Amino acid sequence: MAGTIDELAPAEPAGEEPGLVARARGGDARAFEQLYRRHADKVYGLCWRLCDGDRAKAEQATQDAFVRAWEKLDTFRGEAQFGTWIHRITVNVVLGDRRLLQRWTTFEDAEAGGPRAELSVPAADHDLSRDLERALSRLPKGARTVLWLHDVEGYLHEEIAQLTGIAVGTSKAQLHRARKLMKEHLQ
C-alpha cells in the first residue's frame, strides 16, 4: 500500500460514525479503515484477554474479527453502535476458534501446555494489578471467560450461553465459581 493510513483516510469527527458505516456498507474501504482505526485497540484488548494473553493469537483474532465485519457489513442494521456490533463479532470469532481448537485438542494436550499467561488488568496500584493478574490467570478457562464476559464486558448469562455454547445455568455456576476462586486467590 502506498502512503500511510493518515494519508489514505482523513479522520472524521467522532459523531460521524454512522456516516462512516453507511459509506463502508457502500464499499468504501477508506471509511471502513477509519472504523478499524477507531476500534482496533479495544478489539485487540478483548481478544488478548480471551486468548489468555497470547499476543499472536490476539493479533490474528483481531484481524479475523475485522475481516468478518467487512464481509458481514451488509447485515449491520444500525440498531446498536458499530463498536457494540464489532465487539459481538469479536467474541464470536474468538470463542468459535476456541471451540474448533477444542475439537482437535485432548484434555491431556491442553494440560501439558504449561502455565497460563498473566492477564493485564489496569489498576492504579501496581501490586494490586499483579495480584489480580495472578488470580485471573489461575482461574479455569471457562470460569475466566464467563467472569470476563459478565463482570467486565457486561454480557447477560443468556448472551454468554449463546456465545459460548453452554447452558445458562452453567454460565451462572461458572461465574459463581470464578468469583469464589478470585476471592480465595486474593486473600
Radius of gyration based on Cα positions = 18 Å
H/E element string? HHHHHHHHHH
CATH second-level architecture of the largest domain: Orthogonal Bundle
Largest β sheet strand count, sense and barrel closure = none
Measured distance between first and last alpha carbons: 53 Å
Q: Supply the CATH superfamily name of the largest domain.
A: RNA polymerase sigma factor, region 2, helix turn helix motif
Structural class: mainly alpha
Number of strands: 0
**How much β-strand is present in the residues?**
under 5%
- Domains, number: 2
Give the CA-based shape: elongated
Helix content: over 70%
Any idea of the CATH class of the largest domain? Answer: Mainly Alpha
Mean pLDDT: 77
Instruction: Quickly count the helices.
Output: 10
Unreliable stretches (pLDDT < 50, length at least 5) are 1-10, 100-125
CATH topology of the largest domain: Rna Polymerase Sigma Factor, Chain: A
Furnish the topology, listing elements before pairings.
Layout: H1 5-8, H2 17-25, H3 29-50, H4 55-71, H5 82-104, H6 107-111, H7 126-138, H8 141-152, H9 157-164, H10 168-186
Helix pairs in contact: 2-3, 3-4, 3-5, 4-5, 7-10, 8-10, 9-10
Structural account:
This protein is mainly alpha-helical. It has two domains: 15-114, RNA polymerase sigma factor, region 2, helix turn helix motif (Rna Polymerase Sigma Factor, Chain: A); 116-187, Orthogonal Bundle (Arc Repressor Mutant, subunit A), CATH 1.10.10. 71% of the residues lie in helices and 0% in strands. It has ten helices and no strands. It has helices spanning 5-8, 17-25, 29-50, 55-71, 82-104, 107-111, 126-138, 141-152, 157-164, 168-186. Helix 4 crosses helix 5. The N and C termini lie far apart (53 Å). The relative contact order is 0.09. Mean pLDDT is 77; it is low at 1-10 and 100-125.
